[in-house]
Amino acid sequence: MRLKQVLERTVPISRYADPSIPSGDLDTSLVAVVTDRVVEGRPVVGYGFASIGRFGQGGLIRDRFAPRLLAAPDCLIDPDRGAPDPFRAWHAMMQGEKPGGHGERSVAVGALDMAIWDACAKTAELPLYRYIQRHLDCEAEIKPVPVYAGGGYYFPENDRERLRDEMQMFVADGFTHAKIKIGGEPIDDDARRIETALEVLGDGARLAVDAIYAYTRDDALAAAREIERFGLWWFEDICDPLDFETVAAVAGRYRGAIAAGEAQFSMADARNLIRYAGLRPDRDILLFDITHCYGLPEYLGILRMAESLGWARKSFFPHGGHLFTLHAVAALGLGGAEINPHNFQPFGGLTDEARVVAGHTSPPEMPGIGFEGRQALADMCHDLRKQAGL
Ligand code: MG
């Protein structure tokens, strides 16, 4: 199997189900890797995308990483086994890169890596989670995956009412656990937001809160004191992602779980967080985003590193909220997966046919990641192919 083309397009993406609500002009990069392998009369094409909640990486993809892949068109195949090997393609992309300077290049590599895994799994005619298990010789038991609904962003008008509606939609969709945002208002007001969500979810242990890095050290400690009484599932993204001292200060006083790692974009960053932020393996949660961290090859290194330092796989709830993450969680036996059923469309969420039952779901069984099972996303992928005359 040879790589023939890499396609890329920047597309807008919104935090809100209603795209008319301003969402900070977020966008992402949709990518496709086109191979010369033909299945049922059509070329195998793998799809991926970059960031959920940040920005596209078109420049880095076009100027640096796609040309490296195309300069090594045989990089998808292990010559010894004659079988597709996503790790070889990853090493081709990383050729000549120096340690450090992870910045946004890790997201560009992660987007292409997602598309490469999709293409390889399609070639093997396996759903991605089964392909990952077979490729890694991995033995995690496949069961329905615990999932939770990500959302709960501030609405510019009628915030509490609309938050309650959103939580009711999550429960109607089959979710038992959800995550909402705090940190955008004084903590007393955010406590009312939490109470609103709990009126629907019922139990603090079913609700996580995400401060999106809003707090200074003093504000973080004050917020931790205020929310401790709710007995929440976890307290996420408390302060600047590199302010390990503040995370450690909260971890030293707050009895509930802390979740961190969503904005650590490499193995080196993840190791520093685990070493120096005072996180507690018996209760805290690691959110490293597979795509933001250079893709699955780097993420597997992070998993091994964390396990060697006493962390269990059940502590990993990778950020993302989409199908690629769901497959990885199922294949690797991680703690659970975020799902964005209404936000970050059409990338967030499950296939159109999928159902969540009592807070659990399974990855799709179609070959690859299953973007083709989300009509709105399949249409976007089709447009990208059409742009290249395919
Ligand atoms: Mg977060």
Number of helices: 12
End-to-end separation: 18 Å
Bound molecules: magnesium ion
**For the record, what is the CATH homologous superfamily label of the largest domain?**
Enolase-like C-terminal domain
CATH topology of the largest domain: TIM Barrel
User: What's the total number of strands?
Assistant: 13
What percentage of the residues does DSSP assign to strands (E)?
A: 15-25%
- What is the global morphology? globular
Order of helices and strands: EEEHEEHHHEHEHEHEHEHEHHEEH
Q: CATH top level of the largest domain?
A: Alpha Beta
Give a structural overview.
- By secondary structure, the protein is an alpha/beta fold.
- It folds into two domains: 136 residues, Enolase-like, domain 1 (2-Layer Sandwich), CATH 3.30.390.10; 229 residues, TIM Barrel, CATH 3.20.20.120.
- Helix content is 37%, strand content 16%.
- Strands 6, 7, 8, 9, 10, 11, 12 and 13 form an eight-stranded mixed beta sheet that branches. A three-stranded antiparallel beta sheet has the order 1-2-3.
- It is globular.
- 50% of the residues are buried.
- The site of magnesium ion has 4 residues, from loops.
Short description:
This protein has 390 residues and is α/β, with parallel strands linked by helices.
What are the key terms here?
390 residues; alpha/beta; Enolase-like, domain 1; TIM Barrel; three-stranded antiparallel beta sheet; 16% strand; binds magnesium ion
